[in-house]
Automatic annotation (TrEMBL):
Gene3D superfamilies: Single-stranded right-handed beta-helix, Pectin lyase-like. The keyword Repeat applies. Keywords: Repeat. Pfam families: NosD (PF05048). This is Right-handed parallel beta-helix repeat-containing protein. The keyword Cell wall biogenesis/degradation does not apply. Residues 167-336 form the Periplasmic copper-binding protein NosD beta helix domain. SMART domains: PbH1 (SM00710). Residues 369-382 have a biased composition (Polar residues). It comes from Streptomyces boetiae. Transmembrane segments: none annotated. InterPro entries: NosD_dom, PbH1, Pectin_lyas_fold, Pectin_lyase_fold/virulence, SCF-Subunits/Alg-Epimerases.
């Protein structure tokens, strides 16, 4: 059956759910493909109204809900209609499976889209990609990443990712690239061969990453060339190879990375061998800053890293300046804070204040690099010997996720309205997390 015929038939099906907010009678919607109540919200059910998720999405119009019944859907879904909600009836039992041959599980290229309460797995690139970049969408299987080159920056505007499980994907689990005004929340990522959650190439981002568990990835969270009202708050980034990185990279535009807030996160025991081995060999590090500037790290609990709790370094031509590290607790790390610049590039104005820590390289940073120093004060550099990274495992062999919470009202609620601009956290209200933060959702137990 052609998609055009399917759309006509589906629009007329008695079983198709119509929810009207203000009443109103039916009328031609102008497409010549059936009638719906004026302004009505339509729920398109898979497989009752359309046999695949892709078919259902092709029927959807702005404001519609695509509601997916339990099953394994071996497809790649692209949402290019604005303000569509894609939701699973069961987070664990609605599975979009790439079979390790499709690049992406779900690709969002339209504004105002919500993706909720489902699992994306076994994709060669990304579980869920939200982007305004054609380079990211069109990357071929086998590519190791995306070089945006001279592609004009186009930021997709407004998105929501909530209660999504992304596991065993060849690059990123949840990937927001060249996108802004969005939220990634209440989600779980594991088995990301690069990182579980990635935010890249946005300024101002106005993105909130909150209340997520990211474990058994090469990196739990990565932010590249991303900043400006970017908040990573209240997440459990534990049991990866590296917990969190914020960095600048010439493969993406909007250099350099600057102005992100990392607050109230548990960043723990990021030295798990049963994880995908990242190409650059990162291991046993809680937080890494590479060529990023004007970032704030506050009230994070950073514990259990054989190499270092927090590292600041720089690329050959991009400095790391004015990063503020305040009111964090560092415990049980080989080294709590280390600043090292192996090239001629140096940083300025990086500072520490009010942290609980024991060891730094160079020594005495807690007193000699307090946040009363001038912004132009040279950042001292030192070196230390960290442990060698053990061999990793293929991303397809990473342990299965622990049970994850369902989106409340997933089967009964209507479409989600994504705000044009998300509500941003009040940093002063973010507290130091407990060591058991979100432990009920995690497979890896921290020490």
């Amino acid at each position: 059956m052609s998609r055009w015929v399917l759309r006509v038939v589906t629009a007329a099906l008695a079983g198709l759910t119509l929810v009207t907010g203000c009443g109103g009678g039916g009328g031609d919607d102008g497409s010549g493909e059936g009638r719906r109540p004026d302004g009505a919200e339509v729920t398109i059910r898979v497989p009752a109204d359309a046999p695949t998720i892709s078919d259902a999405v092709s029927l959807a119009r702005p404001g519609d809900l695509v509601l997916v019944a339990p099953g394994v859907y071996r497809e790649s879904v692209r949402i290019d209609t604005e303000r569509v909600t894609l939701r699973g009836e069961s987070r664990a039992e609605v599975v979009i499976d790439g079979q390790v041959r499709r690049p992406n599980g779900v690709v969002v290229t339209a504004p105002g889209v919500a993706v909720e309460n489902l699992t994306v797995q076994n994709n060669t690139h990304n579980g869920l990609l939200v982007t305004g970049s054609a380079a990211a969408v069109n990357a071929l299987p086998g590519d190791g990443g995306y070089d945006t080159g001279d592609e004009p920056v186009r930021l997709l505007d407004s998105f929501l990712v909530s209660h999504v499980t992304a596991t065993r994907n060849g690059l990123y689990g949840i990937y927001a690239f060249s996108a802004q005004n969005g939220v990634i929340e209440h989600s779980y990522t594991s088995g990301g061969a690069d990182s579980g959650i990635y935010v890249g190439q946005c300024r101002p981002c106005r993105i909130v990453v909150r209340d997520n568990v990211s474990e058994l990835n090469a990196v739990g969270y990565e932010g590249t060339n991303a900043g400006g009202d970017l908040y990573v708050v209240g997440n459990r980034l534990a049991g990866n190879r590296v917990g969190l990185t914020t960095n600048s990279d010439h493969q993406e535009q909007l250099l350099p990375q600057r102005d992100a807030v990392v607050a109230g996160n548990l960043i723990a025991d990021n030295q798990q061998p049963q994880t995908p081995e990242q190409a650059d060999g990162g291991w046993g590090i809680g937080i890494g800053v590479d060529g990023g500037s004007d970032n704030r790290f506050l009230r994070n609990l950073v514990t259990g890293h054989a190499n270092a709790g927090l590292v600041i370094t720089a690329t050959a031509d991009l400095t790391a300046d004015r990063n503020r590290i305040t009111e964090n607790t560092f415990t049980a790390n080989g080294l709590d804070v280390g600043w090292t610049f192996p090239t001629a590039t140096r940083g300025e104005g990086n500072c520490l204040e009010g942290n609980e820590l024991r060891t730094t390289v160079p020594e005495g940073l807690a007193s000699g690099a307090s946040c009363s120093i001038p912004d132009t004060s040279p950042t001292p550099s030192g070196s230390w010997r960290g442990p060698a990274a053990p061999a990793g495992i293929p991303f397809t062999e990473v342990a299965a996720p622990a049970p994850q919470p369902e989106l409340p009202g997933a089967r009964t609620s209507g479409a989600t309205v994504v705000p044009d601009v998300p509500e941003l956290p009040v940093v002063e209200d973010v507290a130091l997390p407990s060591p058991s933060l979100l432990a009920d959702r995690a497979r890896v137990r921290t020490s």
